[in-house]
């Protein structure tokens, strides 16, 4: 793992998203999807499961039975011919995902999303979908997380008949990502100062984009090795609000929940510090970017703020 190479991986995000959009326009990665699918089971760990959790929620909202499971779980949906099992592993070697996938092979249609063609997870898979994120030389899953989300949005469109607008969305996310990168000189130093406290960083996001909070907290833990944890915005008032009374509480808020105001009311009363990525509710500092009023653009883009914060802290040692 290397902080300089991690930063380079982040800076390559716009071009990488454009390449994924071009690849999707040339060929639907899910064109071989079996007909008659009634249920989708996602398997993954870490960033893969974060992305899958949002994908499963979106599919359920569209009327498709879907669940994202810890690949390490001993219990799960039984296999069937109508259950599509989607295993996600950027490296293709996650032991838990390999073990979970083996329970379904030859019993359910299986699909693998990976950034490593020919890796163990592809062996025996019915369909292999490359993430096309390129080598992450920094050793941290950042572009692969973003590409996983993009591909899962394309899978959603295929299963629900929602159309072929994902390449255009990827390009808007590439523009938004480039905007944050190009203007980091205007916001990154302030973000670093606001979030640099003795008790870590807390990340808060609506359920529909909970992956943004989870991935952001992971980036702070994985690179600079600082304490960080994620929470869903509505649930925050039930499980994390207590920390604002005893800690120097510093948070990244990903706005868009109907419960943003509830959380911010407590934050203001307790004098806590909050950085909003996107339109800021009262009491929060804001980092704005192109397209931040589109929830799907936000889903694909907003983790970059925490990733750049993590890269700076990591490089500083």
UniProtKB/TrEMBL annotation:
SIS domain ranges (all copies): 29-165
Keywords per UniProt: Repeat
Gene Ontology BP term (one): UDP-N-acetylglucosamine metabolic process
EC number: 2.6.1.16
SUPFAM superfamilies noted in UniProt: SIS domain (SSF53697)
PROSITE patterns hit by this protein: SIS
Pfam entry (one): SIS
Xref: InterPro entries: GlmS/AgaS_SIS (IPR035466), SIS_dom (IPR001347), SIS_dom_sf (IPR046348)
Reaction equations catalysed: D-fructose 6-phosphate + L-glutamine = D-glucosamine 6-phosphate + L-glutamate
GO molecular function terms listed in the Swiss-Prot or TrEMBL record: carbohydrate derivative binding; glutamine-fructose-6-phosphate transaminase (isomerizing) activity
Protein name: Glutamine--fructose-6-phosphate aminotransferase [isomerizing]
Organism in which the protein naturally occurs: Sphaerisporangium album
């Amino acid at each position: 793992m290397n902080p300089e190479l991690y930063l380079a991986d982040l800076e390559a995000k716009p071009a990488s998203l454009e390449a994924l959009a071009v690849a999707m326009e040339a060929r639907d990665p899910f064109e071989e999807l079996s007909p008659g699918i009634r249920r989708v089971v996602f398997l993954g760990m870490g960033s893969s499961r974060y992305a899958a959790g949002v994908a499963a929620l979106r599919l359920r909202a569209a009327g498709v039975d879907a669940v994202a499971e810890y690949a390490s779980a001993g219990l799960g949906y039984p296999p069937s011919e109508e259950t599509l099992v989607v295993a996600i592993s950027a490296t293709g070697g996650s032991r838990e995902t390999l073990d979970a996938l083996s329970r379904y092979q030859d019993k359910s249609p299986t699909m693998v999303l990976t950034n490593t063609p020919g890796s163990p997870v592809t062996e025996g898979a019915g369909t292999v979908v490359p993430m096309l994120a390129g080598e992450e030389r920094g050793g941290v899953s950042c572009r692969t997380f973003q590409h996983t989300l993009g591909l899962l949005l394309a899978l959603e469109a295929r299963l629900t008949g929602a159309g072929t607008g994902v390449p255009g969305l990827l390009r808007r996310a590439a523009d938004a990502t480039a905007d944050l990168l190009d203007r980091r000189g205007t916001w990154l130093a302030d973000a670093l100062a606001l979030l640099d406290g003795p008790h870590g960083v807390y990340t808060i996001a609506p359920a529909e984009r909970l992956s943004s909070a989870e991935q952001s907290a992971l980036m702070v833990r994985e690179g600079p090795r600082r304490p960080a944890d994620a929470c869903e915005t509505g649930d925050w008032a039930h499980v994390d609000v207590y920390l604002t009374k005893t800690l120097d509480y510093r948070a990244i808020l990903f706005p868009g929940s109907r419960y943003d105001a509830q959380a911010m009311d407590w934050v203001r009363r307790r004098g806590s510090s909050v950085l909003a990525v996107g339109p800021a509710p009262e009491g929060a500092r804001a980092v704005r970017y192109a397209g931040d009023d589109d929830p799907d653009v936000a889903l694909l883009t907003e983790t970059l703020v925490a990733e750049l914060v993590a890269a700076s802290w990591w490089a500083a040692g």
